[in-house]
C-alpha cells in the first residue's frame, strides 16, 4: 500500500485540497443571506471526509474489477433510478432524491454518471481497436444511454440527463468512431438544435399551454431567459439577470470577500449551491475566476496525462468519460450564468454544496487515480472479450 501511495499523482490530491478550501470559503459567504442554510459550510467540510475516503479507497482498488463486474453496477444504478420515481422526494421541481438513514439524501442521477462511464467503457473495451460499427456498436451504446436518460428526464432533472449524452459522445469519440459517423452525429445534433430552438420560439404559446399545470411547467422559466430574454417574465429572468449583473460588477479584482452586494443581499438564489460561481465573480472578480479555472485546467491536464501513460485500454476510456462529465458540469454551470447555456440544476464540481455530487466526483477522481496505479500493466484478460 505504501508503494501505491507513493505512485499517486499528488498534484491531483493538492488540487482537490485547494478546491475543498475554496468550497468551504465560498459556501460560507454564499449562505450569509440565507438563514435556512446556516452551517452548510461546516457540513460541506464534513462531506469532504467520506469524499476523500472514497477517493483513496477506489484509487487503491484495481479499476479493472469495476469494468469486469459492470453488469452488477449497472443493475444497481438502474434500480435506484427506478426507485426514486416511486418514493423519491422533490427539490426545486425535480423528483430525484432518496432519503437515507441519518437525515441525508442520495441523488441516484448523480451516482449514475459514474455507473454510465463504467458501463460504456466495459462495452467499448470488447471491441478491441476496430472502428465502431454504426448498427452493431453506436446504436446499442446509444440505447444503453437513452434508458437512464429517459428515467432522469422523467424526474425533471435536465442537467444530469444532458450529462449522460455528453459522456456518451466523449466515449464514442475515443472508442474509435468513424469520421463519417461522427459527421452524421454532428449534423443531426446541429439540425436538432436549430430546429428545436426555432420550434420553441415559434410555438412558445402552444408549448406553454400544454405544460401548464404539469410538473414540467418550470422548464419554461429556465429556457425562456436563455432563448427569449426580452420576452421572459421578470420572475423567470430574475435569477439569471441578477447573476449577470453580479458577475459584471465584480470587475477585475472583485468587491472583496463577503462584500458582494448581490450575494450578501440574497438577490441571487442558491449562491451556496448552483450559483456559487457568482460568489467567485462578484467577490473575487476576473482574477478569482481565472484562478478557479486554472485549478480545473491543471486537474483535467493531469487526468489526460494519466490516460496517455496507461497501457491497458479500459483505463483511458474511464478517464475520458470522467473528463467529459467534469467539463460538461463546469461549462454548463458557468455558462448558464453568463447567458450562453440554459439554467439547469447542475453543480460546480468540488465547489457547490452537495453531498452526493461531491462524493461521486471524488469517487470518479479515485477511478482516475486507480488507472495511474494499475493501468500501466498489460491488457488484463479479465476485461478482454471477443470483439465483433
How would you characterize the overall build of this protein?
- With 388 residues, the chain is mainly α.
- It has one domain (1-374).
- It is 69% helix and 3% strand.
- The chain contains 16 helices and three strands.
- It has helices at 2-7, 10-30, 40-60, 63-68, 70-87, 108-124, 134-154, 158-174, 179-202, 204-211, 218-227, 234-249, 261-264, 276-309, 314-338, 355-374; strands spanning 89-91, 94-100, 104-106.
- The radius of gyration is 21 Å and the shape is globular.
- The model has no long low-confidence stretch (mean pLDDT 88).
- It is a multi-pass membrane protein.
Strand content: under 5%
What is the subunit arrangement here? single chain
The coarse silhouette is globular
Radius of gyration (CA) equals: 21 Å
Percent range for helical residues?
55-70%
Helical stretch tally: 16
Poorly predicted runs of 5 or more residues: none
Number of domains: 1
Termini Cα gap:
38 Å
In which order are the strands of the major sheet placed? Answer: 1-2-3
Overall pLDDT: 88
- The number of E-state strands comes to 3
Q: What is the succession of H and E elements?
A: HHHHHEEEHHHHHHHHHHH
Determine the structural class based on helices, strands and strand pairing: mainly alpha
Describe the largest sheet: 3 strands, antiparallel
